[in-house]
Design a protein that fits this description.
By secondary structure, this protein is mainly α. The protein has 7 helices and 5 strands. The chain has a 3-stranded antiparallel sheet with strand order 1-3-4. Strands 2-5 form a two-stranded antiparallel ribbon. The protein starts with 7 loop residues before the first strand and ends in a 10-residue tail after the last helix.
């Protein structure tokens, strides 16, 4: 037997400010609902977990574009500088994979998120990482910071950000893009027959990363 959640895949919905706000709000509600949830396996090792981004360095050689590879390395330098500060932020179990393929929109209103799929990446991590994951797929390269702010505004309508979380959000969003670029490049190099599927989020991650301000313009504390 199969069960399913009603709705249309969010990756097929037209991009809009209202949808970005709605995705942020959904992420905030879900993270708030998971607050206090605990499980003995919650701190398992997950390759996609933002807090473990330093482990991505060995994968960078598989990013074919030298300029993009260098930008990813710079972002990992930034992450290692701010990583100790993550320990002072609120931590909890989060969904950790709110990408458009895991979200459903209302068939009657493409701006309203009505369903969430795939809780297989749930992990204990700084809660701001869940917003960074969701936002990384919503950044409009033509207005990178403005579109990121729209997602964040939706989250804050449900779950206010601490000043440190707000300050680190753009950089952590970039780190999720680096994660996507590094892992998918590494896997596509090893399984070329499945590369089109593996690399489906690569173009948007590359465009978003290059549109965000470079790491030297991000806070380092």
């Amino acid at each position: 037997l199969l069960t399913w959640v009603e709705g249309h895949p969010a990756h097929l919905a037209p991009r809009s400010a209202a949808l970005r706000h709605g995705i942020g709000a959904l992420a905030g509600r879900l993270t708030r609902a998971l607050a206090g949830f605990a499980h003995p396996a919650a701190d398992h090792e997950l390759q996609w977990d933002i807090k473990r981004a330093s482990h991505l360095r060995p994968l960078l050689p598989d990013i074919a574009d030298a300029g993009l590879r260098a930008r990813c390395a710079q972002w990992l330098d930034w992450f290692e500088a701010i990583r100790p500060g993550l320990d002072d932020l609120p931590w909890q179990v989060v969904h950790a994979d709110l990408n458009p393929h895991n979200l459903l929109t209302d068939p009657m209103d493409a701006t309203r998120v009505c369903g969430v799929l795939d809780f297989g990446d749930m992990v204990l991590t700084p809660r701001i990482c869940d917003l960074a994951v969701a936002a990384s797929y919503q950044v409009d390269p033509a207005a990178a910071l403005a579109s990121l702010a729209e997602v964040a505004a939706g989250w804050e309508a449900e779950l206010p950000l601490l000043p440190a979380e707000r300050r680190l959000l753009p950089g952590l969003t970039a780190i999720r893009m680096v994660t996507t670029l590094a892992i998918t490049s590494h896997r596509a190099a090893r399984w070329p027959d499945n590369a089109p599927y593996i690399l489906r989020n690569f173009p948007s991650a590359r465009a978003g990363l290059m549109a965000l301000p470079p790491p030297e313009e991000m806070p380092h504390d």
